[in-house]
């Protein structure tokens, strides 16, 4: 019985090495998937704990930037109107 098992292993050593390689690859894939899930869960936990105040702070920064841009737009519009008025006065165009 033992002799037949040893001879079978010798005859099918390539198959055995292939199966061992497959088990190692499956184990590595499982470990990689587990690491990804842990990383994802960590991100979710971080966002749940600091997410609300962090988001509000970012929104306030965006509101300030938008306000500054709106002020610049208004300033540019006034400047363009002044330039157009000046140029139309020089052309002596009366509506």
Structural account:
Helix content is 94%, strand content 0%. By secondary structure, the chain is an all-alpha fold. It has one domain.
Number of domains: 1
Number of strands: 0
The structural class is: mainly alpha
Mind summarizing the main beta sheet?
none
List the main descriptive attributes of the protein structure presented here.
single chain, 95 residues, mainly alpha, 2 helices, 94% helix, elongated
At a glance:
With 95 residues, this protein is mainly α.
Give the topology.
Layout: H1 2-11, H2 13-91
